[in-house]
């Protein structure tokens, strides 16, 4: 195996958070997504924030990751917060769901992008949420990537929220859900020990 995947509590290791953001910003700069890069400069770590991280087996270098956000009495999920790119009515649909967490900012190093790494990171992150007793995961993705990345893992589209241009007009973004009853879809992308935990 060329990489290892783990889930880290970012409140205990915020250097991982900043390392991931810097790598993401380099990737986003290739597409000219300056506004997204500037928003990332203002991201904060709140309790209950995790990172599913992939590291190259031979060097330990970070080669991919995704942020995992959870709710508490003191903070909401990014998608339902004021300032979210979603309109208020759409944010209300997400607020109405209890016991969910949110995925943000999936990134994979370019030389690994054509392989299964992105799916393996997502599968490990989903399993982590269910181990924490959450019943579902919400996130956003571009329509053009949903078919080959979201659907194979068991994600479904939120039909009551229409596609929204984000981060600019080139990218139509949709809200997607993963529910615990779709956990079997993860098996092809989990390590053997993770598969045992999922069943």
In words, what does this structure look like?
The chain has 199 residues and is an alpha+beta fold. It has one domain (3-198): Aminopeptidase (3-Layer(aba) Sandwich). 31% of the residues lie in helices and 26% in strands. It contains six helices and eight strands. It has helices spanning 14-29, 34-40, 88-95, 117-131, 143-150, 192-198, and strands at 3-9, 49-56, 62-70, 100-108, 136-142, 156-157, 164-165, 172-179. Strands 1, 2, 3, 4, 5, 6, 7 and 8 form an eight-stranded mixed beta sheet that branches. α1 (14-29) packs antiparallel against α2 (34-40). The longest helix is centred in the N-terminal third of the chain and has 16 residues, at 14-29.
The profile of the biggest β sheet is:
8 strands, mixed
CATH architecture: 3-Layer(aba) Sandwich
CATH topology: Aminopeptidase
Which stretches are poorly predicted, pLDDT < 50 over at least 5 residues?
A: none
What proportion of the residues form beta strands (DSSP E)? 25-35%
Amount of helix = 25-40%
Just give the CATH class: Alpha Beta
Total DSSP E strands: 8
Radius of gyration: 16 Å
Secondary structure topology:
Layout: E1 3-9, H1 14-29, H2 34-40, E2 49-56, E3 62-70, H3 88-95, E4 100-108, H4 117-131, E5 136-142, H5 143-150, E6 156-157, E7 164-165, E8 172-179, H6 192-198
Parallel strand pairs: 4-5
Antiparallel strand pairs: 1-2, 2-3, 3-4, 5-8, 6-8, 7-8
Helix pairs in contact: 1-2
